[in-house]
Write a structure and sequence with these properties.
Elements: H1 2-55, E1 59-61, H2 67-80, E2 86-90, E3 97-101, E4 107-112, H3 113-118, H4 121-136, H5 139-164, H6 175-196, H7 200-213, H8 216-230, H9 236-240, H10 268-284
Parallel strand pairs: 2-4
Antiparallel strand pairs: 1-2, 3-4
Length: 325
């Protein structure tokens, strides 16, 4: 199913590329767009994860440079039955995280310094379990390819503007109307691509992530904190790369609060409600699993926000140096 979904997405992106190319330069423009799309699809499959990580200046860490965080990912991966992914941290005050990679054997998970500074150990475990669920569900290939191709499609809109000024060499069969359509379609291309990826994948990753970490309320508590901070703390890299917004656990862009037609994420309150229902069901009929990573298992509500009991060493709202160590 995931292979078919990926193939359909690539076919859609290729058709969109060719359509905009035709509007800009007629048949010649369409053929050029086809060649570019084919090359971009191939390049994205092998390199889009590296491009996303580079865009956010993410740095790889290991058990020596980030022992507690690295061990957490290792234990969560074992719980999920996944190979150990590469682990990254990117310097940004906005609490958020994402996963990338073409398959579980070539996956990477990344957390912001803001996430590690502001959330408790259990909440971070819930967030990273969600990202590992995306890896296990093979959502990451689709997310990284769409991020790369959506950005490329947006560039075609700029080319449309440049071509429109050259009337003598303009092969556009629809004239100014064709260029105008291409210029209007291009800014919305990223949103259309993100819509092609069903928002239900977030609910699926929430549920599987709760199973991996063993407590739905850890993720529910984390989502509430992240949503409360994501739109008040700017993420300038995300604003410059809006096509990557759908890769994060919470939309990193400002002003995206409603579960509307163009939203890249389900409504946070709905996600929390689903996790609360899952927690209620697990209390009434069995456990979702367990995860400790060497720490006593507690519900997210019972974790203090300050003092020595906080597993990251300080209050969840108090910055600290080296939150990954």
């Amino acid at each position: 199913m995931n292979v078919m979904r990926t193939a359909m997405l690539l076919a859609f992106m290729t058709a969109l590329f060719m359509g905009i190319g035709f509007l800009i330069g007629g048949k010649g423009g369409m053929m050029i767009a086809l060649v570019i799309a084919a090359g971009m699809n191939l390049f994205s499959y092998w390199n889009s994860d590296k491009m996303v990580l580079r865009a956010y200046h993410a740095q790889e860490v290991d058990e020596r440079t980030a022992p507690e965080f690295y061990r957490m990912i290792r234990d969560l991966s074992a719980n999920a039955g996944l190979p150990m992914p590469k682990v990254y941290i990117y310097d940004n005050p906005q609490p958020n995280a994402f996963a990338t990679g073409r398959n579980p054997e070539n996956a990477a998970v990344a957390a912001s310094t803001g996430l590690l500074q502001r959330l408790t150990h259990e909440e971070v475990a819930g967030v990273m379990a969600h990202e590992l669920a995306h890896v296990q569900n093979r959502d990451t290939l689709i997310m990284t390819i769409t991020a790369t191709l959506a950005g490329a499609i947006s560039m075609l809109g700029n080319f449309a503007f440049l071509f429109s000024g050259n009337r003598e060499n303009n092969n556009n069969p629809f004239g100014f109307i064709g260029v105008l359509v291409a210029m209007i379609v291009a800014p919305f291309a990223a949103m259309l691509v993100q819509m092609a990826i069903s928002r239900t994948r977030e609910y699926s990753a929430d549920r599987r992530g709760a199973e991996i970490c063993g407590n739905p309320m850890w993720l529910a508590s984390a989502l509430a904190k992240i949503a409360g901070s994501a739109h008040s703390i700017p993420n300038y890299e995300a604003e410059r790369n809006p096509a990557t917004a759908h890769m994060f656990i919470i939309n990193p862009l400002s002003g995206e609060r409603m579960d509307n037609l163009f939203s890249t994420h389900p409504n946070t309150e709905n996600r929390i409600a689903a996790l609360q229902q899952m927690a209620s069901e697990s209390r009434g009929g069995g456990s979702t699993g367990s995860f400790s990573a060497g720490r006593p298992q507690r519900t997210a509500r019972s974790v203090p926000n300050s003092g020595a009991n906080n597993p990251w060493g300080r209050g969840s709202d108090e910055p600290r140096k080296g939150p990954w160590s």
